[in-house]
Amino acid sequence: MLATPHILAGAAVATATGNVPLGIVSAYASHYILDMVPHVDIGVFHDKDDENWQLSKQEIALAAAEIILGTVILIYLVWGKKFVTLALVGGFFGLLPDLLDNVPWWQNYFRHASWYAPFNFLHQKLQLRLESNKWYWGIPFQLIIIGGAIWFLLKF
Ligand SMILES: [Zn+2]
Question: Which domain of life is it from (predicted)?
Answer without folding.
Answer: Bacteria
